[in-house]
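Question: Send over one sample?
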Amino acid sequence: MKKLMCIAILLLLALPAIAQGKDDAVKNELLNLEKEFWDAWKNKSSKPFEERIAAGSLGVSVEGLGTKEEMLKKMKEQPDDCTVNTYSVDNGSARVMELGRNKYLLVYKSTVDAMCGGQKIPDTWWSSTIWEKQGGKWMGLFHQETPLMMPPPGQQPPKQ
């Protein structure tokens, strides 16, 4: 009986570490997919967006709310609207939260040097994507981008 109790306690103590390892693996996999989207945007390719964004998904950006279909239409009709010189994804800022079976929220900070519609866009962004594994393939269900603004004078920026 004591032996079973010890094994049960050890398993309970190990579960958070096992879960953290799974979350880290998922976070790295999803960050790699996000980087594929950044590369596609930079290279003016709609293919990853067509393949990895679920039908009926939504996105929110400084331009407003849009569906997958609306975003792809704009990308194809205005391929030169944005010029991305460089970008980086901050892996250290990334957080992942499990929302359900095979469904995760990924949040991360990125920096970009880009012009869209003839205007320089903000340099630093917080991005969030809800990903779901469907038929063994990660699909984006929702994405939002929020430009990081400096706080008013006298206020401290939020902790990262």
